Amino acid sequence: MAISCFTKSGFQNLHQGYPTEALIRFLKARDGNVPKAHKMLVDCLSWRIQNEIDNILSKPIVPADFYRGVRDSQLLGMSGYTKEGRPVFAVGVGLSTYDNASIHYYVQSHIQINEYRDRILLPAATKKFDRHISTCVKVLDMTGLKISQLSQLKLLTVISSIDDLNYPEKSDAYYIVNAPYIFSACWKVVRPLLQERTRKKVQVLSGCGKDELLKIMDYDSLPHFVRREGGGSSSSRGSKNSNGTEDNCFSLDHEFHQELYNYINKQAEDVEPPRVTKHRSFHVDFPEPNPDDCRIAQSIESELQKFSQGNGIADPTLNQDHKQKK
């Protein structure tokens, strides 16, 4: 694949010393179609250059209190590692409100976590576990999922498209926990729209999923909402682990977010001296939505509208279907 016209650092940040593995990821994302995979890779590298993605880890969201507001409304963090060494990312799907900042800050924060994962966490895990590790697992907490989140679909579609087009095949598994009835209804219509390789990655677990998750990770790596059975993502910051550190992996005070934020601020200082900071996001061009993501979003929107209109609630097959999947 011809990539000589792109910066060496850009491709290096993409493959982190494993170019063949990176190419295979893009090939998988396009079902083995070489021309489509080539175009996808070229488009990704162009996106990185045009949006200065290689510099995004030196662009902190400031001031810290404002960034805390982003973290408190975009529930995403890392709780530990699987027994095989893959980072475990937790997502508070149901209780993320995305209402403390503009869409650009949430997109910036999401990309920064992706880049920190790929440039720092995965290479460190590869070294620690003495084998190449290039993927993660995600635990998605559905606590609090409700009809009003219909307004968030645009933002979530943008983020999903960025991941699909520029960070393909970076998650090995998606574990759904604390799923309410409304999720069962949405999952029933969304599942057939997913590509087979994606469907195989999704597992809907019973309750908080603790027993199943303990098969692939140690207790200390479980997200806080799994360890605190019934607590969900709503468990606020302030609770401490036995070693005195923040327990809630979504909180800015958690070890992961402290390391990430300190790293970004240090990179920023190396680029230019500290100065009076103002609220200013790092704008990234939003890609054309992935058609598959759009179809999924439309299906979710349609299903949620049925709930808001009082339709479909009495369908007993939804709960039965959900229980069978568990």
TrEMBL record:
Region span, Disordered: 227-248, 306-326
CRAL-TRIO domain ranges (all copies): 63-223
Family annotation (PROSITE patterns): CRAL_TRIO (PS50191)
Comp. bias (Low complexity): 234-244
Name of the protein: CRAL-TRIO domain-containing protein
